[in-house]
Design goal:
Elements (H helix, E strand, L loop, with lengths): L1 H8 L5 H13 L3 H6 L25 E6 L2 E4 L4 E2 L3 E6 L2 E5 L4 E2 L4 E8 L2 E5 L5 E9 L2 E5 L11 E9 L2 E5 L13 H10 L3 H20 L3
Parallel strand pairs: 1-4, 2-5, 3-6, 4-7, 5-8, 7-11, 8-12, 9-11, 10-12
Length: about 220
């Protein structure tokens, strides 16, 4: 898990790849299976980290604004600072799935005034949505990982006035065309199933646990 986190911060994994491999790490049953998840990662050329007291100052928030118009960010891009999205009688779409996340957590301030802010994330991330909606709506529609997994976190502070702030996963957006890495092919042969079946099994286990808890078991 630490190797995957470092690879993400170094820009060697996108958010979608990090989420996929994180879930795979939790379903691994042997050291060999774990090794498959990191063996194809490019070696890092980054210099050793400076001491904490010499860390660079925090960068300002990066803004995406749609005023009576649209602002969209998709594809491959870098996230190394907090994000801001403002929609005033317009639309803002932030697709984080192919983003290189250089921080330990993605933090977004989303403001919608008679407009829509849509944030697309990989299913399986942990979405922390806070804020308020006045004559509007803020909601999350993302398939969660099984309980206990230390998965990537996307934190959204949302304020909607007669508008919407939505965080949606792969299943609610245009599917992301992922390249199949060698590790995933090995994984299918080892487990006799595909990655989507694994996710369905994890979600079903999660639902069963929740049903048992509600039933008092």
């Amino acid at each position: 898990m630490e190797q995957l986190r470092i690879a993400s911060v170094d820009g060697r994994l996108t958010l979608a790849e990090l989420t996929d491999r994180t879930e795979a790490a939790y379903t691994a049953t042997t050291h060999a299976e774990l090794a498959l998840l990191t063996q194809d990662l490019p070696a890092t050329g980054a210099a050793p980290m400076a001491p904490a007291q010499q860390a660079a100052p925090k960068r300002k928030r990066r803004w995406f604004v749609g005023i009576m118009g649209d602002s969209k960010r998709r594809g491959t891009w870098r996230i190394d600072q907090e994000l801001g999205a403002v929609a005033v009688m317009g639309d803002v779409v932030l697709d984080l799935r192919e983003a290189e996340v250089r921080t330990n957590m993605v933090e977004i301030l989303a403001v919608s005034v008679m407009g829509d802010v849509k944030i697309i994330v990989p299913d399986g991330v942990n979405v922390d949505l806070d804020g308020m909606a006045i004559m509007g709506d803020k909601r999350v529609d993302v398939m969660e990982a099984a309980p206990g997994m230390n998965v990537p976190v996307v934190r959204v502070q949302a304020y909607a006035v007669m508008g919407d702030v939505k965080v949606v996963g792969d299943s609610q957006a245009q599917p992301l065309r992922r390249g199949l890495g060698g590790w995933r092919e090995h994984w299918r042969r080892l487990h006799g199933t595909d990655w989507h079946d694994m996710r369905r099994q994890l979600r079903e286990a999660d639902r069963q646990i929740r049903r048992d808890l509600r039933g008092g078991y």
